[in-house]
Amino acid sequence: MKILVTGGLGFIGSHTVVELQNEGFDVVIIDDCSNSTENVLDGIVAITGKRPLFEKLDLKEKSKVEDFFKRHSDVVGVIHFAASKAVGESVEKPLLYYENNIGTLVYLLKELSQKNNASFIFSSSCTVYGQADQMPITEDAPVKPAESPYGNTKQMGEEIIADTCKVTPGLNAIALRYFNPMGAHPSTEIGELPIGVPQNLVPFITQTGAGLREQLSVFGDDYPTEDGTCVRDYIYVVDLAKAHVIALKRLLENKNSDNYEVFNVGTGKGSSVLEVIQSFEKVSGKKLNYKIVDRRPGDITTAYADTTKANEVLGWKSAYSLDEAMKSAWDWEQKIRS
Ligand code: UD1
Fold first, then answer.
1. Helix (H/G/I), strand (E/B), else coil: 186
2. Do residue 124 and residue 147 come from a single domain?
3. Residue 178 annotated as catalytic
4. Do 13 and 55 belong to one domain?
5. Domain range spanning residue 172?
6. Is residue 193 part of a domain?
7. pLDDT-above-70 percentage for the chain
8. Which of 70, 145, 276, 328 has its CA 20 to 30 A from that of 254?
9. How does strand 231-232 pair with strand 271-272?
10. Which residues are the signal sequence here (predicted)?
């Protein structure tokens, strides 16, 4: 079965392509390489022994998307990762985010709506919950007003898919709300490749450990948490990739109970920024240079998932601990710096 993975050269996309190929799917990747490189394909081949089809294509070019689906009419499912994801940049350039993340989603859904049967997996985020009132966060927690255009594109994306599925019987979709993805493939053939200064905690830590950054700034230690730093649910990227394959199979095998479903994908465990630093120090044997600075505007205090729905309905559970995921992130950082 042929599966289209948009953004398949990116961090989560490339790990998902590996899991799809390991499960016997034929994969075609579309990526515009705006935040990735074609070398990632070599890493995928090194792990799986198979080169996925790849087309460098910008999903904003509607006629090219139409042409792609004409040439690949045997695509039965789409996993849609391609999107811009920098929160700060989205505040500066909202239209870029609405065009990249919403415009392209509409084009894809239009194409899939014309098929008799299509399965669609959407890359959503726990950002839709904002600061949830209760922990752990279940899928029933209310969606809070978005803090940024980026967050808004995830909320709007979910609504657009839900509205489309309602009136398109052949279209089945699942939105996966990721918590905080981290780590790299255990082979160290693929991993996270942030361009410029990393915005996310784990790549900033590993780059500091590797000497690329002088010091990590810990954004605030006066939050109402046990040690005063923010708490997040760090999910290993390979576990997350596997959740996509399981969700896709659920749709392909018609096991879904509704034609639009939503699942949290996290570990169910919250870790503070200081605990993440401790994990790095433990697995690397290095002391991390960090200092406490002011809070980062827009950060929420605590977010960790209730994973009961994914565990019971999808039959998926995260397998890796924070230390194991951190070890893989550190191994990867050392490999790309060597
Ligand atoms: C961020 C995005 C979220 C997105 C997710 C994708 C924001 C406000 N939210 O989540 O919408 O879905 O990335 O991965 O940007 N931290 C530091 N020092 C740093 C970097 C981070 O102390 O240099 C802290 C943050 O304050 C936070 C935690 O580490 O408490 C995790 O931060 P980050 O990796 O940026 O993820 P989120 O903010 O949770």
1. coil
2. yes
3. no
4. yes
5. 2-182+234-265
6. no
7. 100
8. 70
9. antiparallel
10. none
Nearest by Cα to 121 from 173, 156, 186, 170: 173
Residue 5 CA to residue 22 CA, distance in Å, equals: 15
Across 24-53, average pLDDT: 97
CA dist 294 to 180, 203, 215, Å?
21, 20, 15
pLDDT-based confidence at 211, cuts 50/70/90?
Answer: very high
User: Is the pLDDT score of 338 beyond 90?
Assistant: no
Are 242 and 221 members of one domain? Answer: no
User: How many domains are there within the chain?
Assistant: 2
Ligand 1, atom 36: nearest CA belongs to which residue? 200
**pLDDT band for position 303 (50/70/90)?**
very high
Mean pLDDT of 78-96: 95
288 band by pLDDT with thresholds 50, 70 and 90: very high
**SS3 for 302?**
strand
Q: Is residue 308 part of a domain?
A: no
Q: What CATH number should be reported for the domain holding residue 178?
A: 3.40.50.720
Buried b / exposed e across 66-94, counting CB within 10 Å, b at 16+? eebbeeeeebbbbbbbbbbbbbebbeeee
Q: Which region, left, alpha or beta, applies to residue 141 given φ > 0 means left and ψ of -120 to 50 means alpha? A: beta
Residues 223 and 108 in one domain: no
How far is the C-alpha of 286 from the C-alpha of 281, rounded, in Å? 5
Say if ligand 1 is within 6 A of residue 57 CB.
no
Q: Is residue 210 part of a domain?
A: yes
